[in-house]
Design a protein that fits this description.
CATH architecture: Orthogonal Bundle
Low-confidence stretches: none
Shape: globular
Radius of gyration: 16 Å
Number of domains: 1
CATH class: Mainly Alpha
Oligomer: single chain
Number of helices: 3
Largest sheet: 2 strands, parallel
């Protein structure tokens, strides 16, 4: 089986500063959801990742993640925001 991932082109989407501020909050939430699922599956913190022992070094609060891991979550959040906008939706904060 061959799978070719295709994503929506969001390269032309410009996000306002207000929307960009959401990126970090969403990234934190993405990590929290991931961690909640891992914990429910029986994973625990471990200095090295081990699928066999269900241990991972990134099962920590978002603030304690290495910068590379935070950036992964930020990119997920940013692309989600850009996709929402590309689909014609708008996001605005209630005043």
């Amino acid at each position: 089986m061959s799978y070719e991932a295709t994503t929506m082109d969001t390269s032309g989407v410009e996000l306002s500063d207000d929307i960009l501020e959401l990126t970090e909050l969403l990234a934190m939430n993405v990590h929290a959801h991931w961690a909640s699922r891992r914990l429910a599956e029986g994973w625990t913190y471990g200095a090295e990742r081990s699928d066999l022992r269900k241990e991972t070094p990134v099962l920590v609060p978002y603030e304690d993640l290495p910068e590379a891991e935070k950036e992964y979550d930020r990119k997920t959040a940013l692309e989600t925001l850009k996709t929402i906008m590309a689909l014609g939706y708008s996001i605005e904060k209630k005043r």
